[in-house]
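Example record for the data management plan.
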Amino acid sequence: MTSVKQFRVDREATADELGRGAFVFTDAYSVFDWGQMPDEIPEKGASLCAMGAYNFELLEREGVPTHYRGVVEDGEVLPLADVDAPPTEMAIDLTQVPDLPHEGRSYDYDAYHEAAGENYLVPLEIVFRNRVPVGSSLRRRTAPADHGLDLAEWPDEAVDLDEPVVEFSTKYEESDRYLDRGEADRIAGIASIDDLETVAREVNRVVTERAEAVGMTHEDGKIECLLYDDEIRVADVVGTFDENRFSYDGQQLSKEVIRQYHKRTQPDWVEAVDAAKAEAKETDVADWRTLCDVQPQSLDEVVIETARSIYTAGANAYLGRELFDAPGLDEAVAAAREL
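Corresponding structural encoding:
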């Protein structure tokens, strides 16, 4: 299980064949890589499932291979358009995901690929960026000039990029880190780093065009991929308010709203998380959470309801369908501005 969705295996993948399984989406949420937080956000899981399914179906129509099979209603696998209620289960093809051995923060990718063979989940996240909003890690790691921007420093508002930026980060390390292209290529195994980038750019194009069609701005996002039969296929979930940053009329619609709220209202916890991550890096400890001496606190009910509205109203707008009982997007955005 991940921090926000359960993973069910119906048939194991083998070295030569894909398996079958499902994601079961929960209403849990996670920020700052903490894992499951104290509260749940009602209907969050269903909104992620619906948006992910919608985007997978868009990608398949555009000729981009994925591991998606449909959403599940009453035990039957169906296209999203054929369900009447918000789905919480997504049927998927499964690939092999070997253990990634490590000593401290030193990870043995050679062992991973020896066990994986030619049917495996690529142990990378491929990140694409169209805009650099407040809160983006790109601001900490690079300067505007690195991206051809005529700015001395990052301003206090979002900055549009002339061309999308694609980056690679680790997937299964306790503290994910961004990689140069050479290390990303090594970690990817026999999967082509060029093909991974090409697929990421195509996913970015499809999601960006859909967002623009409904008045949203797609700022950044990420994908995961599997390799099967010498083909890169998009895996995990794509184009949701957890995997991607979207905005509407200048207001964030993504999980970033809750992330920034925690920064303002629980700064001691956020600072403790940063300190624990730094200490773990210095002392070669894999799980930084064991070094964090402050726990996150529950959210007020008004914050939870506002978050629910962001996910459900945003999903309705993106899908072009009133799948959720939710306020209009303008109302949800107005409430988010008040947090």
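Summary line stored alongside the record: The chain has one domain: 5-337.
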